[in-house]
Write a sequence for this structure.
């Protein structure tokens, strides 16, 4: 029992299993690379690797957690030695570095294509995410330990009472959460620095070409009919969005065009022919058109104007 | 100390005053109406009153609980350095953007564009005449952000409009530090600054061009000035705090947070109900905030004739009561917990021990948090009864309530100070510095 205690309270007792745990995705890589090069999965090495991969994570994680809980229990009443402090700093720093690398690797799947990481290197994204979460828990425990030790130092006369003081526990919890929530700009720095630097075309998407053409072709005192707002045409159907580019032209939602009297009041207008999904429904033979996906209205003239290949802008005269 | 608080307040009050004057120039029908006249007179009275009180009022000393150490200074410098890194990241993201966010394109920047082409706000309603979905849209948000965007586009050529939001983040950090260092001490004020500007939700509002960050700025500065008034009874602080809280409605109108602040202030004042200054100050705070609320309602409804986004009836109230028994309220509660997540836990734990606090200012802060949470809860429940899209409000809810974070963090740090025995009401008998505590805790004697 004494030997076990000596082992648990040895500063290296925490560092070693924790480092082993952090290397866990590498066992997955080893397994993946071996499996892809052997003909049978019943090969003894392959079986051993599969088994190791399954038991590796829970063993080292459990081991590390047991040790840190034991440390917390001990350091409620005793000062933390310089060696233990160094061990905790090493663990915290290594975890931070591993989290950074894990985040960087996870970005590969977004940057290239889904499953890139696993199919190229054999690294499972869920392993990296698990390690990151475990790191946050350990950060929390270390932060809690620091605060506990500080509080205990102050309340020397009533050492050990702290655990029953809900005020200290909850305040510590609040501060730890606040610190974790403050890591965002640092832990997401890669994503933040990669925020699209493109212009409105990038922001709005491929249908921006319609807005651009309308802006180039249609006179400023003219009327424009646009697709109904909704999931089919999220950008070109959204009147406030397109007005930013097309102001001061008068914009009319296609959803409102449901009777002949209304279109005759409009007189003449312009509209883009959107290909995916197609809008509006034009019948040149009968000279009818459907703007709101339901009601036909008739027109007198339909003229095609274009400034780009594949982009069609129509000028329509109703009366 | 006093001058720094005054300077921060006057910068923002003057900026809002200029924006208001510009709005008055744009909208002569509103400017010449009774409501418009009362609006600008009340603003001017509080503005001038604040300056006069600041100049002639006797300064009340509040206890400064700080002691300094070399290590404390080093930690403070470190906190400033990492805060600077946060600012640099936000600025880099904003400076390298080619396009702004969707709502900023469609509303804030679009209205700035209309303004520069000679259109005023009341005329913007007519733009949506042939829009079946967004008739209320252009006056859904008050004019502040669009006026700033217009000014920025026309007079600031060295940086894109996105950078204005990084500037807000810088001002928020500095403001929080300067407004709290008297009560928290330099080290903890620097920590509060870092925890606020690096916070996931607040930082996020600095890289999108929405109204949230300027709104948070006004609410937070107003809150800390009222806090200062409660502790020091300096009237300039009440006047300026009132202006900042009240005029935050000129930035965002959908969440009348001022109601939570007024109720919190009223309940705090109940503790000292015989104090005449406190009783009168409730009247000042309530009347000005209510006037600001009514003036925008009046402009939108009577001058611009804009359709309403929300339309609640008496049946909604009955449905609300029934919903408590049929599980509707439970669903909303779960949704709120899920949307706020860990942040809600921070709000709640910051209330710990609040009942035992002796300082009125801390009790006020606690009430603000409680009533804000109740307000969001109640509003979301009401909206859920009428509209299906209430489940899409999670992100917006998170962004609009970011002002609660610095308040909760402030209370938590005050609690830490009490625990560490550094203040008068602390548990420790002997006052020792932060560095001394670290040294005692970790270094073998």
């Amino acid at each position: 029992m004494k030997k076990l205690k000596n082992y648990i309270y040895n500063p290296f007792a925490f560092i070693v299993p924790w480092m082993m745990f952090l290397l866990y995705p590498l066992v997955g890589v080893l397994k993946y690379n071996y499996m892809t090069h052997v003909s049978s999965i019943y090969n003894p090495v392959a079986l051993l690797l599969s088994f190791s991969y399954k038991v590796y994570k829970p063993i080292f994680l459990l081991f590390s957690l047991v040790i840190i809980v034991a440390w917390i229990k001990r350091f409620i009443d005793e000062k933390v030695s310089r060696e233990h402090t160094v061990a905790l700093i090493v663990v915290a720093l290594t975890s931070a570095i591993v989290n950074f690398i894990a985040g960087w690797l996870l970005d590969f799947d977004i940057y290239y294509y889904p499953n890139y990481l696993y199919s190229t290197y054999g690294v499972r994204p869920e392993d990296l995410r698990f390690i990151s979460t475990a790191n946050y828990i350990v950060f929390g425990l270390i932060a809690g330990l620091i605060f506990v030790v500080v509080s205990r130092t102050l309340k020397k006369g009533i050492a050990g009472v702290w655990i029953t003081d809900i005020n200290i526990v909850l305040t510590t919890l609040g501060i730890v959460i606040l610190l974790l929530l403050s890591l965002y700009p640092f832990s997401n720095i890669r994503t933040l620095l990669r925020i699209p630097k493109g212009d409105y075309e990038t922001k709005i998407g491929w249908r921006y070409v319609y807005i651009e053409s309308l802006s180039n072709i249609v006179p400023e005192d003219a009327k424009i009919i646009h697709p109904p707002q909704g999931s089919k045409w999220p950008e070109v159907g959204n009147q406030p969005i397109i007005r930013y580019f097309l102001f001061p032209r008068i914009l009319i939602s296609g959803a409102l065009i449901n009777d002949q009297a209304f279109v005759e009041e409009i007189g003449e207008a312009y509209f883009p022919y959107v290909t995916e999904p197609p809008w509006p429904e034009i019948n040149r033979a009968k000279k009818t058109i459907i703007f709101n996906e339901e009601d036909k209205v008739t027109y007198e003239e339909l003229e095609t104007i274009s400034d780009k290949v594949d982009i069609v802008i129509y000028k329509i005269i109703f009366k | 100390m006093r001058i720094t608080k005054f300077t921060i307040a006057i910068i923002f009050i003057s900026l809002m005053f200029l924006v208001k004057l510009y709005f008055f120039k744009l909208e002569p029908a509103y400017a010449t109406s009774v409501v418009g006249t009362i609006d600008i007179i009340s603003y001017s009275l509080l503005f001038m009153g604040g300056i006069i009180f600041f100049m002639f009022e006797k300064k009340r000393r509040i206890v400064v609980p700080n002691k300094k150490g070399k290590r404390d200074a080093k930690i403070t410098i470190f906190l400033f350095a990492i805060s600077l890194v946060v600012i640099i990241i936000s600025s880099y993201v904003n400076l390298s953007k080619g396009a702004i966010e969707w709502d900023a394109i469609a509303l804030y920047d679009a209205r700035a564009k209309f303004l520069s082409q000679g259109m005023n706000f009341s005329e913007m309603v007519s733009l949506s005449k042939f829009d079946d979905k967004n008739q209320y849209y252009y006056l859904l948000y008050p004019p502040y952000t669009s006026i700033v965007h217009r000014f920025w586009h026309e007079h600031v050529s060295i940086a894109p409009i996105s950078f204005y939001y990084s500037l807000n983040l810088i001002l928020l950090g500095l403001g929080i530090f300067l407004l709290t260092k008297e009560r928290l001490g330099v080290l903890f004020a620097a920590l509060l600054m870092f925890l606020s500007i690096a916070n996931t939700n607040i930082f996020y509002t600095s890289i999108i061009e929405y109204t949230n960050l300027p709104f948070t700025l006004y609410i937070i500065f107003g809150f800390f000035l009222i806090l200062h008034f409660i502790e020091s009874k300096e009237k300039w602080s009440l006047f300026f705090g009132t202006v900042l809280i009240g005029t935050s409605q000129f930035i965002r109108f959908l969440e009348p947070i001022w109601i939570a602040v007024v109720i919190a202030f009223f309940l705090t004042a109940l503790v000292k109900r015989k104090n005449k200054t406190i009783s009168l100050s409730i009247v000042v705070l309530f009347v000005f905030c209510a006037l600001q609320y009514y003036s925008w309602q009046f402009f939108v409804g009577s001058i611009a004739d804009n359709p309403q986004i929300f339309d609640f009836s008496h049946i909604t109230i009955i449905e609300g009561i029934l919903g408590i028994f049929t599980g509707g309220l439970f669903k909303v509660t779960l949704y709120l917990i899920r949307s706020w997540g860990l942040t809600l836990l921070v709000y709640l734990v910051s209330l710990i021990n609040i009942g035992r606090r002796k300082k009125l200012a801390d009790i006020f802060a606690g009430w603000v948090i409680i009533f804000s949470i109740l307000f969001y809860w109640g509003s979301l429940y009401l909206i859920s009864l009428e509209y299906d899209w209430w489940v899409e409000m999670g992100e917006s809810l998170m962004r609009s309530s970011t002002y609660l974070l610095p308040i909760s963090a402030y209370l938590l740090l005050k609690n830490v100070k009490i625990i560490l025995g550094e203040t008068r009401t602390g548990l420790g008998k002997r006052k020792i510095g932060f560095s001394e505590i670290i040294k005692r805790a970790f270094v073998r004697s």
